[in-house]
Amino acid sequence: MTLFAFDVPDDVRASYVRPGQYTRLELDSENGFFVLGSREQRSPWEMVIRSGGGVSDRLLAKSPDAIFDVEVTPALGAGFPVEAARGENVVVVVTAGAIA
Predict the structure, then answer these.
(1) What was the pLDDT predicted at 65?
(2) Per-residue pLDDT reduced to its tens digit, 25-51
(3) Alpha carbon distance 28, 32 (integer Å)
(4) Are 53 and 5 in contact (CB under 8 A)?
């Protein structure tokens, strides 16, 4: 697994408001969905990527200092209802590659 981080424009950055949201990346005409793992409304956006084909493998094949174009959507999904859990005990169960 590899931590992948990239800067996003201010309007895209502002769309990330709650943990559990995700984004769609397009690279070389391939699409992939990735859960955001960084703090909300901050750049760079971070995600943990593992080999599994498609966009993941294309990203992992890039040199760490490579410059390339990736199309990214604003943050998608409602995320986790953290406001409803404030002040309560919470159990988080993580499976497989969903560790972001």
Answers:
(1) 86
(2) 999 899 999 999 999 999 999 998 989
(3) 11
(4) no
Burial class (CB in 10 A: 0-12, 13-18, 19+), 56: buried
Compute the CA torsion angle 82, 50, 60, 4 (nearest 10 deg): 20
Q: What is the dihedral of CA 36, 11, 62, 56, to 10 degrees?
A: 40
Segment holding 84, helix H or strand E: helix 82-85
Task: Tell me if 48 sits within 8 A of 4, measured CB to CB.
Answer: yes
> pLDDT (tens digit, 9 = 90+) per residue, 56-93?
999 999 888 888 889 999 999 999 888 888 898 878 77
Are the beta carbons of 8 and 72 closer than 8 angstroms? yes
d(Cα 1, Cα 51) in Å, to the nearest integer? 7
Contacts of 60 (CB under 8 A, 6+ apart): 2, 49, 51
